[in-house]
Description:
Blueprint: E1 6-7, H1 16-19, E2 60-61, E3 75-81, E4 93-95, E5 98-102, E6 108-112, E7 118-122, E8 140-144, E9 147-154, E10 157-162, E11 177-179, E12 202-204, E13 207-212, E14 218-223, E15 229-234, H2 251-254, E16 256-257, E17 265-267, E18 272-276, E19 280-281, E20 298-303, E21 309-314, E22 331-337, E23 340-348, E24 354-358, E25 368-372, E26 386-390, H3 411-423, E27 438-440, E28 454-455, E29 460-466, E30 470-472, E31 474-476, H4 490-498, H5 500-503, H6 527-536, H7 549-559, E32 594-596, E33 600-601, E34 616-622, E35 627-633, H8 638-641, E36 657-659, E37 663-666, E38 673-678, E39 684-689, E40 699-703, E41 706-715, E42 722-730
Parallel strand pairs: 2-36
Antiparallel strand pairs: 1-25, 3-42, 4-5, 5-6, 6-7, 8-9, 9-10, 10-11, 12-13, 13-14, 14-15, 16-19, 17-18, 18-20, 20-21, 22-23, 23-24, 25-26, 27-30, 28-29, 29-34, 30-33, 31-32, 34-35, 36-37, 37-38, 38-39, 40-41, 41-42
Helix pairs in contact: 4-7, 6-7
Amino acid sequence: MLSGGKRVKISSFIPSALLAxxxxxxxxxxxxxxxxxxVVSTSRNKDWDVYLGDNSRSHYSTxxxxxxxxxxRLKVAWTYDTGEKGEFEANPLIADGVLYIPTATRKVVAxxxxxxxxxxxxxxxxxxxxxxxxxxxxxxxxxSGDDRRIYTAVGSYLYALNARTGQPVRSFGQNGSVNxxxxxxxxxxxxxxxxxVNAPGAFFRDLYIVGVSGTPGTIQAYNIRSxxxxxxxxGIPRPxxxxxxxxxxxxxxxxxxxxSWSGMALDEVRGILYVPTSQPNxxxxxxxxxxxxxxxxxxxxxxxxxxxxLWHFQGVHHDLLDRDLxxxxxxxxxxxxxxxxxxxxxxxxKVGLLFVLDRATGEPLxxxxxxxxxxxxxxGEQTWPTQPFPSAPPPLMRQRYTEDDVSNISPEAHxxxxxxxxxxxxxxxxxxxxxKETIMFPGFDGGMEWGGSAVDPDGNYFVNLNEVPWLLQMAxxxxxxxxxxxxxxxxxRGYTNQCSGCHGLDRRGDPAGGFPSLLNVGKTxxxxxxxxxxxxxxxxxxxxxxxxxxxxxSIVDFLFGDEQPATAxxxxxxxxxxxxxxxxxxxxxxSAPYMFTGFRRWFDAQGYPAIKPPWxxxxxxxxxxxxxxxxxxxxxxxxxxxxxIPPTGTENYGGPIVTASGLIFxxxxxxxxxxxxxxxxxxxxxxxxxxxxxxxxxxxxMIGGKQYxxxxxGGAKSGRPSGxxxxxxxxx
Length: 732
């Protein structure tokens, strides 16, 4: 037992029939079967027809034509331009020689996977206007005989498309689509909720199961062919459900969060779905949601046939720091632990901790201890006294910013960083929100990110991390006597409560982090466009459709500087307050007493992360032993390398894949470079330039005996140029 900690008790309930199963899920089968059929792919073709490689989300391929001896010869085979710009982050699917990928505006294109020639394009605007402006990380492919479909979500709607033509399958749902918001109507309203889907779901028997972000988050299962809703699991429990008592009595009516947006893993043999969930909302103020807040920040194992909870593990209790477990999909693998084979699930988090659990029971392979964390001094808040830490593997990144971490890339950076460090505080991975500025390290985008991790059949785990410091600070919204701090208009109050958490009190945002400045927004967007963004979401911004129409419009009017006097000081019942980065921020129309002042990376005067490198890394962990095998920088700044500074790594978004030939392929970096690493030691074996940053997880496939590696290159992250290219590489 670690000092000051106690062992976690995992709550679980597993039917005896499941415990009797001793065979694995087949995550690393050497033959690929067509979904819904018994046809085995030919030896000259190999598809990547499931998001992130397979339902285990292993990012693994058995292909080995491209290996350590010839990878240096890789060349561009073809490039396809979507004609768009934005956060293009999708993992391409390849089935029967066709590549399917969603664009930055949620169109879906089908390409000849050998040539890159466009075969068809689905534009959701032809079905219903709006809703197509948010990032999408993949689609789902399903086939049974001659019935072959692509499932994609746009706004609140799930579409089934004919995989050969791109046309909606009109027998699915209502004329080709299902309104996912209809299953989660708000309390006291008959109107469907505004919801979003970021990552594709999973197929189990005759079900398509998808994670839906809304207020609250839900997991929904539909009949594959008809679109009929079969079951639903609520991230925030309702009365009588397990976990209900971990919230205030009526939290399920108005609180948000507990979404699953990065992807779920499925053990097809056991019939267990593994669901990672996000933080609760309001994100940075929890005075209205005192309690552990299940099932937010959790890995929840569900019976895939019924949606019934089997067991859960909560990785962060009463989260106040946006430390959602949903930031990365879980991965299933088999390891040798204490001399026996164990089918495990590995779940990383945003501070670089890795929890490895028995897939059937939820019991940890290595003890997990609850350790004390700093407590808040904000009146009305109750910080959870402890947080869980695994005894193994060790943290994959630094857990606290210390004086040894002060920047060393130049004397100027060192002096200024040291000065700021001595003024601020750094309290480790779970600092208590306060009125004093805190160095947030690991940062808000630290640890495991949505690109995911890769595993091989030997039990090795590969993941990229960000090691960039951010700043955390809360601000009061009321005077000491409880009266409002200012006589702000309705629009200004709405902006302060709903928008400033991302775009800042000064509206300057953080463009490098994907939060644009809203100063002079009218120069680039119309009021109608901004109104649509507020209602439906866009880019990193979630939907604010749950807010009353008057509240939304007053915010838009405020941004354009023409808020009408008649609405300047009125109040409107709604779900405002809280000042957090996501829907469902508070209770009624009362403002929270404190608000988050905005997402701010900490850079030095030259614009580099204010910390000693590495700023981004690629890591390998042996999950048989729980030991870190190697860690190498991921990415570089050429101008620093030219000065003799070793590669620093860069902020990175997008995950790796690993192949049977011992290669790791990853883009992700802020230097528009695609790389191949030796999985045994982390050595770079090849690198090629991309037209824009490869902020997506790549795929690999074989057609006619030739292996290809393909990646979406859209850039737009870390303040880099933006585009919309799909680039495929192969041996000449």
